């Protein structure tokens, strides 16, 4: 039986990856920053180690006798987590480089990493560049690997729903850019399936393609609001973003990422089966 180490196991995607692995009968070790975070996983693992990806020494023992490392580790895009001022590069690139070095040192046979779907112009965002730089490091490392590249997670779109509950529908730009977001459960399935795949990169998206206007309209409809989206010109939002830069670099990078993805088509192969409308309806009741 393969012995799997999941890094970033207590995050939104990591928890679902652990659950999917458990269902498939794998032996699972998780790396967590604290014992309190283990409670999120409800015991769906065989072993655990406490350590931080930014502190290589603290996580060294986690890689012993491991066949495959799955890294779901990365900087959160949830504004509630932005009290941490570390940049996307420090976490997505620096932290995962530490994980990769330890995997190589321990002789791990495969490395699976969750990145982001490539799209023309998306590398302008530092969030994306940090993922791409690490993906390049994996390719150059010599390790057997699979990089799973989803479009936007459903959870990233919850801000649309929160605004819609208040009867507000805000879209950056003209709202015509298209995307097929994907549920984290579908991404978790793709990540676990990658254990048996020889593919180096797997691009995935959800079942439905929306414009940004249509996502906003869907959120408003689910909340029972008969409103139309309000469009914010992209140049005004860019000014706001750069005014924020001196005060909190993490928020600046997040807003920069938002400006970039709201104006690009990000459409991946239709892999997922779970639908955004069902997700919005479920979350609107909470």
UniProtKB/TrEMBL annotation:
<dbReference type="Pfam" id="PF13460">
    <property type="entry name" value="NAD_binding_10"/>
</dbReference>
<feature type="domain" description="NAD(P)-binding">
    <location>
        <begin position="8"/>
        <end position="196"/>
    </location>
</feature>
<keyword id="KW-0602">Photosynthesis</keyword>
<dbReference type="GO" id="GO:0009523">
    <property type="term" value="C:photosystem II"/>
</dbReference>
<dbReference type="InterPro" id="IPR044256">
    <property type="entry name" value="HCF244-like"/>
</dbReference>
<protein>
    <submittedName>
        <fullName>SDR family oxidoreductase</fullName>
    </submittedName>
</protein>
<dbReference type="InterPro" id="IPR016040">
    <property type="entry name" value="NAD(P)-bd_dom"/>
</dbReference>
<keyword id="KW-0604">Photosystem II</keyword>
<dbReference type="GO" id="GO:0015979">
    <property type="term" value="P:photosynthesis"/>
</dbReference>
<dbReference type="InterPro" id="IPR036291">
    <property type="entry name" value="NAD(P)-bd_dom_sf"/>
</dbReference>
